[in-house]
Amino acid sequence: MAAEALDTYALHYQTGEPLPRKELQSLRANRQFQGAMALLRQIQFAMTDLTLHQQHDGDPIELARQVEATVAVAQSPDYNRFVMSLSHLFNGGYSAGYYSYLWAERLARDAFDVFESTGMYDNTLGQRLADTILSVGGSRPMSESWIAFAGREPRLEPLLAAYGIDQAA
């Protein structure tokens, strides 16, 4: 949450004052509460999806339990059948593509970080994003488009920071 952007629309309806920084910090802390657990859950979903597509001849519930045993902090009870309700596995054409949610979020968080460091309303950077990623679409590999935009490989740190994960810890 960039204060610069919020200050343009998150205004008190009577006074027009921007959101107090203390409130912004509170919102950020609330969003990040147990963020590592939420991220780990998404990793578990992605790994379950990939495992089921790689080992499609096994019992899906058992394969999901094996993934959970390697990833999750707390194990689900034996009667849990979450994998049967993970609709991405069975419809919608994802076909082992659940991980793409995290990949897309990684790129989005990193792009936001680029804008935060340069300025949320930097027209030149916005045009570069449009020219190197948005207008190109799927005509070239995203890795090439990303490097054309950011001038480097994607970074993981902005994603981790968004979930409140401090790498120094």
Report what the structure shows.
The chain has 169 residues and is mostly helical. It has three domains: 3-32, no CATH class; 35-89; 99-162, no CATH class. It contains eight helices and no strands. It is globular, with a radius of gyration of 20 Å. The relative contact order is 0.12. The mean pLDDT is 88.
Shape category: globular
Summarize the main sheet.
Answer: none
Which structural class matches the secondary elements? mainly alpha
What is the CA-CA span between the terminal residues? 22 Å
Tally of separate helices: 8
Task: Tell me the Rg in angstroms.
Answer: 20 Å
The level of helicity is: 55-70%
Say how many strands there are.
Answer: 0
> What number of domains?
3
Q: Can you tell me the residue ranges where pLDDT is under 50 for at least 5 consecutive residues?
A: none
Beta content? under 5%
Taken in chain order, the helices and strands follow as HHHHHHHH
**Mean pLDDT level:** 88
Keywords:
single chain; mainly alpha; 3 domains; 56% helix; globular
Walk me through the topology.
Blueprint: H1 3-6, H2 21-32, H3 35-54, H4 60-71, H5 99-118, H6 123-134, H7 142-150, H8 157-162
Helix pairs in contact: 3-4, 6-7
Short description:
With 169 residues, the protein is an all-alpha fold. The protein contains eight helices and no strands.
